[in-house]
Structure formats: structure tokens, C-alpha cells
Amino acid sequence: MKTFKHYANMALFSSLFMMTFFMGGCGSSSCEDTTRPAVVLGAPSITSTIPTNGAINVPLATLISATFSEEINPDSVNAGTFTVTDANGEPVPGMVSYGNNNTVMIFTPEITLGYNTTYTATITPDVTDMDGNALDISNGLNVWSFTTINEADVVPPTVNTPPIVISTIPADGATNVPLNRTVSALLSKTVDGTTVDNTTFTLHNDTLNSNVSGVVSYLDRTVYFNPNGDLNASTTYTATITTGVKDTDGLYLNDSNGLNVWSFTTGTDTAVGPDPVNLGKAGDFVILSESGITNVPTSAITGNIGSSPITAAAMIDVTCSEMAVGSFIHGVDAAYTGSPSCFVAYSTLVSPAVFDMEAAYVDAAGRTTPAPTTELGAGDISGLNIAPGLYKWSSGVLITGAGVTLTGGANDVWIFQISGNLTVMSNAIITLAGTAQAKNVFWQVAGANTTIGTGAQFKGIVLGANLIAVQTGASVDGRLLSKKEVTLQKNRITQPAL
Fold this sequence. Notes:
With about 500 residues, this protein is mainly β. The protein has three domains: about 45-155, Immunoglobulin-like (Sandwich); about 165-265, Immunoglobulin-like; about 280-495, no CATH class. It is about 10% helix and about 35% strand. It is built from two helices and 39 strands. The strands form seven sheets. Strands 18, 20, 21, 23, 24, 25, 27, 30, 33, 35, 37 and 39 form a twelve-stranded parallel beta sheet that branches. Strands 22-19-38-36-34-31-28 form a seven-stranded parallel beta sheet, with no helix packed on it. A hairpin with a 2-residue loop joins strand 14 (about 215-220) and strand 15. It is globular, with a radius of gyration of 26 Å. It starts with a helix and ends with a strand.
């Protein structure tokens, strides 16, 4: 950056000198204006893109991304500042994110790109750096085109795909992070635990310029860094997972998406309860199932819904008129028979989301710290006021019309490990008291069904091994994530605030 600014100043001085020279020699109003646009010192620019401009034979699943010369403001990263269009100028639906310490902008298509099709990616000057400087587009790298592979050229892969980082806790750029939380990352494949240690997963105190001591561990697809003590208050930390981490196929981590390096800033408080469960791509959905979604109209749904691997025809009687603006119905094929305006056929998001849902279920079911409270209320928690923590039952859990209250802070977490069914009776209300948030309440249900009764008001994220049935008029502030089926009957389902 110092070299760039030095030459930028020289360029500006030369430009001003030449302007003065030509203006001084022009005595007529007919002189042509040869003034160049002003140079903004310190403005961010794009240094490279994936795919590169003019690339051909691009795989359909390629991430579309741009790398910047400096950190960009996450608030300027959205679907309006990063777009992708096809050869007809039609926009490609997708999700925009950022990574690698806010220096990489990523567009993930929500559909499978077409074979032998040219696409154009555009990043607008509305993207800014942390000082508010608009993107400098003078090098032209903010617009690039590429052409996908021909269908005839597609051959089955001869090797497995290397693992990548899917999501992290805390998220990149997170602020006010509790001082006593474990840092973790969800990978796309099962981890070879022999490659996960303090050399391949580090946490760096950026203020003190030193690494944090801690214990590194793993479970299935998730790796954890648990600091030996509380982190420092109001301090920025950077976590790094190196390419030394391997999956169980012996393939090393692919760091090309930049998500293996992320930074966050602590607050001043500690949190109570276990660490939150990393939902990965499942967190992009309010309802997710493997065996279908059925609905008795009319429901009101805020957030994406989807089902995989079952055909999209198994999403029955849920229509786009019931979906909030910006919410979509995702299917693995084009067999959905409802209204098409919000349906995403051949979605590239839903199958990875289901895969991550399964990992989240394993994570929640496997938690052992803090030490769990077992058999609370002998399974009947009606009328109780429950503090943040880890709770475990060897049978089912019942909530009657007396409801239940969860009292805690904004960063506190509840995980309920239920070996049997979860039954929420009619008109029962789960009340969140204090500043408790639905996104931090996890109901892991191993039994045959989760039933949310007529008129009940449910809060939290259900990770269900089997059927989740929401009965007439019940509302859910949370997520319904089932390894089997989800059924609705005139419900309001709203994804929690992030």
C-alpha cells in the first residue's frame, strides 16, 4: 500500500502540472477539454477475479469472486453491488458474501449455471472501503465475462474434491464477540483429525501480535479452537486454518475461497451456556427437509425453504404467495408444481444445506460441555424458567399450555438434547426473557416426531431426526430443519434475526 500511494501522489502531481500547462496555452473557448477524471487517493480497486475475464470451459460449480486491494466495508457488499447476468442480460439469482478479512467478494449462484453459456459479472462503484472511498473501476476489472464448459466435455471426476471451509463461528467481521467462546469452522468434508493441531489452526491476537494458546479439536466436519482463558476485551483476533488440514480422503484444504482466514472483534462481556451450533448453509433456510414439505394454506413464511434429495414435487401446496419478498422455494429438480415466480429449479444451494444440516445435528447431539443438566423436570418442563445451558433427556420432552420461559442475554445459548419426542401442546408459549434470542436456542430431537400444537408460539431452531409437524395456527420464530418431513397448517414461520 505504501508503494501504491507514493506513485499515486506522483501521478496526481504530473496530472496537475499537465493540466496547468495546457490550460495556460489555451486562449479560446473552442479549446477541447482534455482534463482527466480526478484520482482518489486510497480508493480500493479489484486486483483479480475468479474466473478471469474471457475464461472458457469454466466448471458449472465455480465460485464467482473478486479480490480487492484493501479491506472493503461489509455493509456495501450486497446483491445490488455484485450481479451476474446471462447472455440475454437476465440476472442470475444468487447470494453475495465476503471473506479473507473483507478483501474477497463472493457470488454463489442459487441455480446451476448453463452449459456453454457466457455470463457477465459486475461489481458497482457503490462498493467502498472502510474509509468510505468508492471502488476505483478505472482498470476495468469490475466487469468480467466467462463461458461455461460444454456438456459434451463433462467427464466424471477421477479424484475427490478437496475440502473447503463453509462457515465459521464467529463470522468474519463479527463484533461484540463474547470473551469466553470457542472459535470453530465447518468444513465441506470429514476431517482427518491427525492433521488438526495448533500448527494448522491458530488464533492470533492482532493487537499484541501474538498467537493465543488453546486446545484444538475436531468432530466430524467441524474443527474447534478453545482458548485456554478468556480473550481480551475490545480486541481484534484473526483465526487461520492452513492448507495442512486434510480430509479423510487424504486431500488438503483448498483455501481459494478465502474463508479459512477470518477476523472478529471481542466485546466486554462473557456468555453463558454452550457455544452455538454452526448451521453452515442450513442457516440460509427457514425450513429444510430431506423427505418433503407439505402445507395446508394459507401460511406465511419468511426465509428460504427447500427439500433434498427428494424431488421438488414433494413440496406440496406451498406457493409463492405465501413466501415473503426475497424468500425462495429451492428444489433439486424442476418437478415442483406450485407457482413458479419464487421457485429455484436445480438449486445448487439446497443439497449442500441439507449436508450441513446433518453436520449440525451431529454437532448438537455430541455436545458434552458445559456439563449437561440431565432429566430436568423428568421431561416435563412446563412452567419452568430455564437458564442458558446444555440439557439432556433420555426420553421425550413435554411443554403444556403453561409454556416455558428461557431467560438470558443476547449471546447466551441453550442446547436441548432430546432422545425421544418433543411435544409442544396447544397454545403453549415459549417465552424468551431478558435479551435471549431465538437464533441461540437449539432443540435437537432424536425421537419419531416434533409436534408444535395448535396456536402454540414456538421459539428456536429444531434439528429433527424425523417428522416436524406444525399444527393449525401455530407460529415459529426459528428454523425447522428435518432429516425427514416438515408439515405445516396455516402457520407463520419466521427465520430468526442473525
